[in-house]
Automatic annotation (TrEMBL):
Keyword match Ubl conjugation: no
Statement: the UniProt record of this protein carries the keyword Transmembrane helix: yes
Single Gene Ontology BP annotation: peptide transport
GO cellular component, one term: membrane
Keyword annotations of the record: Membrane, Peptide transport, Protein transport, Symport, Transmembrane, Transmembrane helix, Transport
InterPro entries: MFS_trans_sf (IPR036259), POT_fam (IPR000109)
Name of the protein in question: Solute carrier family 15 member 5
Pfam families: PTR2 (PF00854)
Species whose genome carries this gene: Marmota marmota marmota (Alpine marmot)
């Protein structure tokens, strides 16, 4: 499963590289009719391909716990817990056990036990919000920095989308090597501690990228201004070459290489089979929450600093202060994730107990086999006794 997520993100970013290079061509050539034509044709081809391959994509649907059932377990446990606290006073080992039918809830013991590991993943998802805010600086603050830098390369005006493609190159280069070393050379090390270390290292790389962006912004202001044509307008920008910003883009690419596959593997392997679909959906949902968190953070800082820390005109503000604040929040986020990362270390032991079917179901099957075996041995032993008596 680990190679699947690594190559899945590798192919996704390969497609993104092609897209950004196509956007760069459109920006350079001015063929704006392609802006509508390419997405429409791409969507149409994707729909046709999915329709043709539908039978091969869905081989045997599995019965999974729905998202509504997961929320239902939590709400019912909270409701029953409050009622029992004020009226019944029944104690249980886990708060979610209140949702079980035997404790006054409305859900089976099997469903509640399968839901427990999912709620243990919530801290993992929450601590990725700040990291996602750092990643979202590429189309926001990093874009402003690049737009206000010198894009002229020997008379050729570089499109801004080229810098987005640069941020993807580390993943395209490093992902195959990391997969080779972790799978072929050190297959026994692809466990929970290794994955948690990858997530921590990726968050540190994101914090370092934002910090480098802050110093780059200070460095950019020391260059004399010049006029540069951009999107049909002539804008006053810094004469600092845009290649001085490459390091911060590369560091974010390294962060994506380390975090995304490891996070997906933990979200997939940590939970039972019946809850995996919900877990992966929540991972995507929290990635979207990270984007909204970044937008709210920018709006809040803009209002508090009165436009100084996220200025409309970079030369009239202090964007570096925003970068340093975000880097500090990311470092605190790393400390918070490190404090809870120990619970995600022993994935293999957890899977041996939970993922290959439910614990209760497997236990019943084992008991049934044991009883059958015990009954068969009793019949054999009684036959032997009768035979010996006859002799």
């Amino acid at each position: 499963m680990a190679p699947f997520f690594s190559w899945f993100y590798w192919l996704m970013n390969l497609n993104a590289t092609v897209v950004f290079l196509g956007i760069s061509y459109i920006q350079h050539s001015g063929a704006w009719t392609l802006v509508l034509l390419i997405p429409i044709m791409s969507t149409l081809m994707a729909l046709i391909t999915l329709h043709m391959m539908y039978c091969n994509l869905i081989y045997q649907p599995e019965k999974c716990c729905s998202l509504l059932a997961t929320f239902g377990v939590f709400v019912n446990a909270l409701k029953t817990c409050c009622l029992q606290y004020f009226h019944l006073g029944r104690d249980v080992t886990d708060s979610l056990d209140h949702a079980k039918e035997k404790n006054g809830g409305h859900y089976s013991e099997l469903l509640v036990e399968d839901t427990k590991p999912f709620f243990a993943l919530l801290p993992l998802f929450i601590f990725q919000l700040i990291y996602r805010v750092c990643i979202m600086q590429i189309p926001s603050a990093y874009y402003l920095q690049t737009m206000n830098s010198n894009l002229n390369l020997n008379g050729f005006l570089l499109p801004i989308a080229v810098m987005n493609a640069i941020s993807i190159l580390p993943l395209l280069v490093l992902a195959p090597f990391m997969e080779y070393f972790s799978t072929c050379l050190f297959p026994s090390k692809r466990d929970g501690p290794f994955l948690s270390a990858c997530i921590i290292a990726g968050n540190l790389s994101a914090a370092l990228s934002v910090m480098v962006a802050g110093f780059s912004e200070i460095h950019r202001k020391h260059f004399p201004p010049l006029e540069q044509p951009l999107l049909g307008q002539v804008l006053p920008v810094s004469s600092m070459p845009c290649f001085h910003l490459v390091l911060q883009y590369v560091l974010l690419g390294v962060a994506e290489t380390l975090v995304n596959p490891a996070l997906s593997i933990i979200a997939h392997r940590f939970v039972p089979k019946t809850i995996r679909e919900t877990s992966m959906n929540f991972l995507t949902l929290f990635n979207g929450f990270g984007c909204f968190t970044g937008a709210l953070l920018v709006e809040l800082i803009y209002l508090i600093s009165e436009g100084n820390w996220f200025p409309n005109t970079l030369n009239k503000g202090n964007l570096e202060s925003f970068f340093f604040l975000l880097a500090s929040l990311t470092l605190l986020n790393v400390l918070g994730f490190w404090s809870v990362s120990q619970r995600y270390c022993n994935l293999n032991h957890f899977n041996a107990q939970n993922i290959s079917g439910s614990n209760l179901e497997e236990t019943l099957l084992l008991h049934e086999k044991s009883l059958k075996f015990y009954g068969s041995t009793q019949e054999i032993s009684s036959s032997i006794d009768l035979w010996e008596t006859a002799l």
